[in-house]
């Protein structure tokens, strides 16, 4: 939508330029404003609002608003949060982060958690995958699990194609796939190929996911949406941390022994301060 506005801007009458300025200053608000509210904000008539959106290619204001809502639900950073208001206050940020944590952890089934941690402790190999912003979460869980058990690594190594990484999976392996919203095109196909290898799949995702849960052994949905710009991942990282803690518990003495071995090797290599 912003691209359409920029392309049409030079030919807009003064009133429609004010509408364009209002939308471009904060695209996220288009998802929640009414046509009358936008008209008041820009100091124009409702009819001018209708003409503006028809001029940039929409049948109506409502059609443009529906597109904005779809982009907001999909996590587009242009259509989430706000540029002004209370979004910058620490107390508001703290409140929204607590809501994300509660919204994520409250829907986690303890029996599912126990089942997953047992599988993480006993799987022959654990491979972790995440794209875009989900990548650092996959890296985090890889690093944590690798301290307490063998055969934990990224599914895709630098320089590898997806096919090369997936082909290494065997029946009984466990793939942790982190796929929070704004997943790349082809995400579901990758999950399907992992499932076809016979590997079990733990899918860490959000409520916008479709199709992939049907292919996963377990699916954990995390809340990511907040009133502020950019998604929050505090819920997702708490889930991953909880899985690591429960996996160490499931490993028992074997996990402790492996951790001690890693620590002793660090000391001999003088790797940390």
From TrEMBL:
InterPro entries, alphabetized: Homeodomain-like_sf, HTH_RpiR, RpiR-like, SIS_dom, SIS_dom_sf, WH-like_DNA-bd_sf
Domain HTH rpiR-type: 1-75
Pfam families membership: HTH_6, SIS
Protein name as it appears in the record: MurR/RpiR family transcriptional regulator
Organism: Meridianimarinicoccus marinus
């Amino acid at each position: 939508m912003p691209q359409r506005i920029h392309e049409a801007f030079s030919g807009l009458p003064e009133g429609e330029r004010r509408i364009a300025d209002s939308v471009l200053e904060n695209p996220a608000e288009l998802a929640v404003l009414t046509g009358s509210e936008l008209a008041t904000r820009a100091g124009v008539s409702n009819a001018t609002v209708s003409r503006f959106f028809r001029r940039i290619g929409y049948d109506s204001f409502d059609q443009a608003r529906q597109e904005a809502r779809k982009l907001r639900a999909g996590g587009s950073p242009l259509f989430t949060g706000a540029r002004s208001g209370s979004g910058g206050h620490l107390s508001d940020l703290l409140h929204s982060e607590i809501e994300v944590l509660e919204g994520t952890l409250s829907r986690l089934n303890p029996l599912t958690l126990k089942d997953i941690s047992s599988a993480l402790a006993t799987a022959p190999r654990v491979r972790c995958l995440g794209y875009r912003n989900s990548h650092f979460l996959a890296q985090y869980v890889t690093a944590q699990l690798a301290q307490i058990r063998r055969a934990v690594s990224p599914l895709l190594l630098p320089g590898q194609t997806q096919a090369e990484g997936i082909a290494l999976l065997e029946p009984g392996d466990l793939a942790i796939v982190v796929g929070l919203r704004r997943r790349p095109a082809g995400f579901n196909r990758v999950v399907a190929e992992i499932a076809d290898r016979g590997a079990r799949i733990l899918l860490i995702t959000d409520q916008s996911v479709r199709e992939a849960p049907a292919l996963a052994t377990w699916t954990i949905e995390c809340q990511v949406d907040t009133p502020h710009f950019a998604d929050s991942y505090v819920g997702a990282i708490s889930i991953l941390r909880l899985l690591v803690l429960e996996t160490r518990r499931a490993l028992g003495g074997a996990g402790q022994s492996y951790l001690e071995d890693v620590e002793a090797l660090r000391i001999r290599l003088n790797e940390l301060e």
